[in-house]
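Narrative summary of target 7.
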Amino acid sequence: MRRASARRPLPARRRARRVLLGSILAIAAGCTPSAPSPAPAPAPAPGPDREAVRRDSIARVRAAFVADSLVRVYAYRDTAKIRVCAGGDVTLGTNLDTSWTKLVARRLKKPVAALPSPDSLVAPLRTLFAGADIALLNVEGAIGEGDPPIAKCAKSASGCYALRMPPSAAHAVRRVSDRVVVANLANNHARDAGPDGLRETVRRLTDAGVLVTGVDTLPTLVETARGDTLAILGFATSGAPNDLRDLESVRRHVARAVAGNRRVIVTMHLGAEGAKAQRTLDSTERYLDVTRGNPVAFADAAAGAGADLVIGHGPHVLRAVEWRGRSLVLYSLGNLVTYGPFSHREPMRRGAVACATVDGRGAVSAARLYPTVQRAPGTVRTDRSRRALTLVDSLSKLDFPKSGARVLKDGRLVRR
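Modeled conformation, tokenized:
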């Protein structure tokens, strides 16, 4: 067998050559540029702040809701308008004392009916109240029949008037308008037949479909055919509970009505009476030794508490009209139709129907006077001479130089 031979050692020169070649390769490897290291991965974008997104969404929803609400409010303000037409004193005869007919018949030189049909007396008013959502009248007297439980006036008394209209007067009042009719009983003649007579008056008016206000301090809530509502309060100087001389109570009752209703109307039956009572002064007035209130102070209390429209009657003459802030104050609309023992001379024969448009905010956006005139013994018609307009314009400028209303030729009431 062949024996394996041992490996022979490399010559020294060859070993040196290998060492040199290895060194060159090592140096070459160190000088060769290496491949660039991969760039660091970009940091991931931060995720959405969920709380910030939630707040932004809520803010957007709220802004949209407010914008929509404002649109609705202004649309309601412009479309939900209520037209209220009001008149002054209404007395359709009296069955408590008919002796006045003899005196008037001698003066007029013709027979005079003591109790004509109440419906015939109010018929000329229907055109003036046409288009009104609410007709508001001061019903000056009781309504009923039979012997009253009390006698208001002694036979020897002078200047005393006992007024009670026949039962048919209630239906006549209702027929003034084919829409809502409200009768104010806050005056000094609604109780002429005593407490029982007042209750009978309320019952007959209610049975006829007439709403009643002014018998207490609760607002009479009126709903129109469109479903809009309005509150009415009546005050007079006939004592509690709705005594207009108690201004603190007036403010409280009106503010309570305003808190629960968008639109509020207040009536006031006050002041001196007769031809010398045309001026409206900021002072307490008296008639027959009775304190009859301060009209300016009352208007300030009612309007200051939020009433949109303040309507006055009682002096039996027309008085000034004033813009008190955004509220409209008519200090007296005079006599509308007063059949019976009344004076129908100048200026007591002049009256007016006031029509005002109250918008959805409760602001009076338009107002106008329609002049009337009466002939003895108390028949009314539209006054073609428009004398009432001139009277009210002059009195407003005289008594309230800065805030008094200006009455245009067509009866519109505007600010000066």
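The longest strand covers residues 364-375.
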